[in-house]
Specification:
- The structure is a single chain.
- This protein has eleven helices and 14 strands.
- The chain has about 350 residues and is of the alpha/beta class.
- It has two domains: about 200 residues, 3-Layer(aba) Sandwich (Rossmann fold); about 100 residues, UDP-galactose 4-epimerase, domain 1, CATH 3.90.25.
- α2 packs parallel to α4, α4 packs parallel to α5 and α6 packs parallel to α8.
- It starts with a strand and ends in a 6-residue tail after the last helix.
- The chain binds uridine-5'-diphosphate.
- The site of uridine-5'-diphosphate has 15 residues, from α6 and β8.
Length: about 350
Amino acid sequence: MKVLVCGGAGYIGSHLIRELLSLPNYEIVILDNLSQGHSGSIPAGLAFEKVDVRDKQKLEQVFSKHQPDAVMHFCAAISVEESVVDPLRYYDNNVIGTIYLLQTMNKYKVKYFIFSSTAAIFGNPEIIPLTDDASTKPINPYGDTKLTVEKILGWSENAYGIKYVCLRYFNACGAHESGEIGEDHDPETHLIPLVLQVVLGKREHIKIYGNDYDTRDGTCIRDYIHVTDLATAHIKALEYLVRENKSQHFNLGSGEGYSVNEVINAAREVTEHPIPAIVHPRRKGDPPVLIAGSIRAENILGWTRKYDSIKKIKKVFVYLKINNAALPAIQAEIIHKNTII
Ligand code: UDP
């Protein structure tokens, strides 16, 4: 099976590729415009095309040259706050880019599509934990771009027979066991890598965006899920598509949530760094609580979380430290520009 991994040089895509490489039956082609991805994360010897999915002509050349059997689509702009400030850029990148990809798949008769969706499609949930069929009402453009693609996929299956799986990630966290790859966006907007930047002296303090939410300590609660577990879900999803030939969507969460304060306190405890924090106004577009149940992924995909021991967010930091992953990798990044954390 030849898999075209769009956005394969980015955070989740690069971890997916490590998992695919450990299996015998997959041939991999990476497509990435390297706007956020890191060329240093691409394993030697893999086919790589530096292409933007919105460049239709080049996209067609990639399909014609490699003739993939399946596409996994990780390319997207992902900042909630930025999407509120510049929504058109988000619709352009996330929706139009995916439309071009689907049109090209249809032209080249590629049947299987795995899509990186998000918890942000749910908006302010009425019931926690969110079930796989909870109602979707995004409260920011980022979430709406992803929900729009989910709708487009439904109609595309109907019209062109493209079979798809939407994986709705909750908060990806952690790094690869090798410590070679991890989370590193520029600009970084995510809580855990920003906290680690404070530990490493790259940032003076962490901002807490709002402490007046209706939560146990007033700060937002999120469901943090290990990036390698997200990666394995993609492979299970592709196996499912090939086996069942049926489209489906799945929540990928752990069923437990941690507040911004709890994340910062966990990092303080593990790193023994004071990590100064300053309360700022709420960030635009943030729902107070996002926690998912993943019953469908467990039952239908047979997905189990290897990092289920991350019962407490502290374990994420312990994990990052013990596995030589994030903390040293941030330092390494200063020396080797392409090392990602
Ligand atoms: N957050 C924060 N300070 C930061 C970055 C994030 O307080 O510097 C909060 C953010 O408001 C949200 C939570 O941490 O409530 C997780 O945000 P992140 O950007 O990591 O992921 P998101 O939930 O937006 O996908």
